Amino acid sequence: MGHAAELLRSYVSGEWRAAADEGAPLHDASTGEEVARISSAGIDFAAALRYGREVGGPALRRLTFHQRAALLKALASHLREHRDELYALSAKTGATLGDSKFDVDGGIGVLFAYGSKGKRELPNDTVHVDGAVEPLSKGGTFLAQHIATPLRGVAVQINAFNFPVWGPLEKFAPAFLAGVPSLVKPASQTAYLTARLVELIVESGILPEGSLQFVAGSAGDLLDHVTAQDLVSFTGSAATAQKLRAHPAIARNSVRFNAEADSLNCSILGPDAVPGTAEFDLFVKQLTTEMTVKAGQKCTAIRRAFVPAELVDEVAAAASERLAKVTVGAPEADGVRMGALASLEQREEVRRSLKALLAAGSVVFGDPEHVDVVGADAERGAFLSPVLLRADPERPEPHEVEAFGPVSTLLPYTSAAQVVELAARGGGSLVGSVVSADPDFVREVVLGVAPFHGRLLVLDAADAEESTGHGSPMPQLVHGGPGRAGGGEELGGIRGVLHHMQRTAVQGSPAALSGITGRWVPGAPRREAEAHPFRKSLTQLEIGDTVVAGPRAVTRADIDHFAEFTGDTFYAHTDPEAAAANPLFGGIVAHGYLVVSFAAGLFVSPEPGPVLANYGLENLRFLTPVQADDELTVTLTAKQITPRVDQDYGEVRWDADVTNQNGESVAKYDVLTLVAKEDR
Hints:
Layout: E1 10-12, E2 15-17, E3 24-27, E4 34-38, H1 45-61, H2 65-80, H3 83-90, H4 97-121, E5 128-135, E6 143-150, E7 155-158, H5 166-178, E8 182-185, H6 191-204, E9 212-214, E10 231-235, H7 238-245, H8 248-252, E11 256-260, E12 266-269, H9 278-292, E13 304-308, H10 312-323, E14 328-329, H11 344-358, E15 361-365, E16 373-374, E17 387-391, H12 397-400, E18 407-413, H13 416-424, E19 429-435, H14 439-449, E20 453-459, E21 478-479, E22 490-491, H15 494-498, E23 501-508, H16 510-517, E24 546-553, H17 556-566, H18 571-574, H19 576-581, H20 592-603, E25 611-622, E26 631-643, E27 649-659, E28 665-676
Parallel strand pairs: 7-8, 7-10, 8-9, 10-11, 12-13, 12-19, 13-18, 14-16, 17-18, 19-20
Antiparallel strand pairs: 1-2, 3-4, 5-6, 6-23, 15-17, 21-22, 24-26, 25-28, 26-27, 27-28
């Protein structure tokens, strides 16, 4: 980063650009020393968005989902090698090493997660097929298929100060995987850490040019230039989210807008979790951890701790005992477990919120105006004591005021119905937790509060050891919440990718849909060649390649042998009188897996060749009972071909249709095989 007064540069339109003025100072949260200066004066935001659309977008859309996924993994590995540098810079934000790992490692983990999900759950193609084919006519000549294609704009992200690494990466990963370039605008207080993150990414040369841009400083007139193909994702206060949502360009163009805002998250202790139980200890530990990690500057931190009225004193005492052991100070000082808030301004904002909360209750632990600090000056640095309050749950303040720091409030309740109603007064939250081993209480509370939450954690002795915790958003799970929490939704695995894509219903003939989606659909042309499809390598095989094999008669001896050999002597296969009484069968029928086995024997090509393995069946349905003397024919068609980016083989999905002598389908399913890319 250079010397402390260095002016942060923006990375836009393919180059690093310094602002046209000296910028405003940014300070070390612990020492007050100037770290860098920041300004976006002179940045052409309209040009930056055009660059993303015209350079970054086309470059990304030329890649398949699997190729993008591989780049995400490569980027994650690169950043992992530079974690120590990011940790050191993160300390200037007031973060302890543990806090820094939460931010840095968490962000890198999102890249890895989306790299893996892209490979496993998306096709090695540029179009995503969404759902099943929808038949629209009796004759099967007119069908529909939903597809998802990347938007042709830029994903603009406006981030909060508390997670300068995780914040941009958790928004960038699904956008990149979708094929949409990003423009990152971090909050100024900690932008120097995001700036270095982007420098590391750009220096790596891993990403296609234009897929990531970075603005240091004010957003200026950026939002004036967004179009219907762009997206805006915001993390910050509810008031700012409301202003951005109403921006004329966003409203006029129906720009996709996602907000993650204030959240008065709650944790609920069950009546069964009395002192001495594992759940009581877990509740107290989780509460104090959420108060002190990142100095409570987490959008997912516990702000309201609901406790059975008869247990409030015990919880207060146990939490105070744990909080008394928390050493506050400079992140690098020995023994420090909680660092500073992000800035002096942030500390004053928390103190103002505390005054409002104290109108509804009293302090259980901590001093809002004084804290003993190790290794730093308590006034020059933005230090604050953890503060635990106790308040009247009927007062509005605990459900309306968020002190965005190491602050939480104990609130007593007397019944499951009451605590559900109290939790809902928060107006919508990102996350809530229920700490209880009573399944009836847990069910009533979870179903009662679910409409007001984006995520719910049920914590008990059984899952505690492996639980990721109340305050940890996971890439696989949605992150967002209704109402006050912003009404948005990020992450959630592939859901987050699809947010950056347009879902389109396409109607047409089977052949047209097959050509568009790259998948064979029923009714599309089949090709029966002299060469068995199993004799073709992945590069030779084509969608629609088919083998028809059979017929093979099914005898009563086959049915009896299969039942005896497998030990599956279900009456429909072994007891003529009982089978005849079954309204579905009317007599002895062949086991469904015997039908599947005979089908495999019909379509297989047994000699060594490009097919390396059969690794599964999916969507298996038995449609018509098979009786003795029925004759089976199987039609196997190459349905989807997915080369693997980093392997010398790929996956082939085959459509299997087993029919009887009357042309009726008796079984339908997909066969999954691994096939070498070249002849072996």
